[in-house]
Design brief:
Shape: elongated
Distance between the termini: 15 Å
Strand order of the largest sheet: 5-4-1-6-7
Low-confidence stretches: none
CATH topology of the largest domain: Rossmann fold
Helix content: 40-55%
Structural class: alpha/beta
CATH class of the largest domain: Alpha Beta
Strand content: 5-15%
Number of helices: 9
């Protein structure tokens, strides 16, 4: 039930949903003064959430810092799913978050850990047969990683299940903490909270920094991409607050 509610609720927290609701209300509103206020508010939100400067400044505060190099060898890397999408043919394809996979395999290749645990299934409300874990297993096999070094969890639908299912698998394999946790920088803050509440001792290894580059004057101009970025970060903020109060 929690999974279903979270999927439906996320639509309501997107800034574009707010703007669209305000503008539609303004269209059908008969009160001229209220209509004017609604239109002004809608246009203001369009500029605020279409402003690249604001989302860049927020990302700098929210994103986890780059993990410093270390010579320590951990028992396992935990890499969270979300970097594989289901193609039209029903097969997996790497998406824009593929840096999670790249950095995790680099860590394993460089012997920063003896094992790699991937966790991720299918987060669709009505999932079909496709599972991220199956795709990742096949890709790791193509890269000639030994089966004995790979753990695959292919049922998790969200970060809470990532943590709970990973803990069970790591305990079964008798791999001792702490572990290296690999996920996108914008997602790391929430992931650390959830893994801590689930009793999984991890050190963060953020990657996939989706907002890069220096601040520029052009950032003050409206940018459609900023809307998508704000939607992603607002989802993380709401998810963090929900995880903070939720018993895991």
């Amino acid at each position: 039930m929690y999974f279903l509610i979270s999927k439906l609720f996320v639509i309501l927290i997107y800034p574009f949903t707010w703007v669209l609701a305000l503008l539609l209300y303004a269209v059908f509103c008969k009160n001229a003064r209220r209509k004017q206020k609604l239109l002004i508010t809608g246009v203001a939100l369009l500029y605020i959430f279409g402003n690249s400067l604001l989302i860049k400044l927020f990302a700098r505060m929210w994103d986890a810092d780059t993990y410093p190099p270390t010579t320590k060898t951990y028992s396992s890397i935990i890499v969270l799913g979300g970097f594989v999408s289901e193609g039209e043919d029903g097969k997996g394809i790497f998406n824009q978050s593929a840096d999670r996979f790249i950095q995790a395999t680099k860590l394993l290749t460089n012997h920063n850990a003896s094992h790699l645990l991937f966790t991720g299934g299918n987060a669709d409300i009505k999932p079909g047969k496709f599972r991220e874990g199956y795709f990742v297993r096949a890709e790791l096999k193509k890269m000639h990683f030994a089966d004995s070094t790979i753990l695959i969890e292919s049922q998790a639908r969200n970060t809470i299940e990532n943590a709970l299912f990973s803990k069970k698998l790591l305990d079964q394999a008798n791999l001792k903490p702490p572990y290296i946790l690999v996920t996108s920088a914008f997602h790391m803050r929430r992931s650390l909270l959830i893994f801590k509440k689930a009793g999984v001792d991890v050190v963060p290894y953020p990657c996939d920094y989706i907002i890069k580059g220096k601040l520029a004057f052009s950032d003050l101009l409206p940018n459609a991409d900023a809307f998508g970025l704000w939607s992603r970060y607002i989802k993380e903020i709401v998810g963090y607050i929900a995880a903070y109060f939720k018993r895991i």
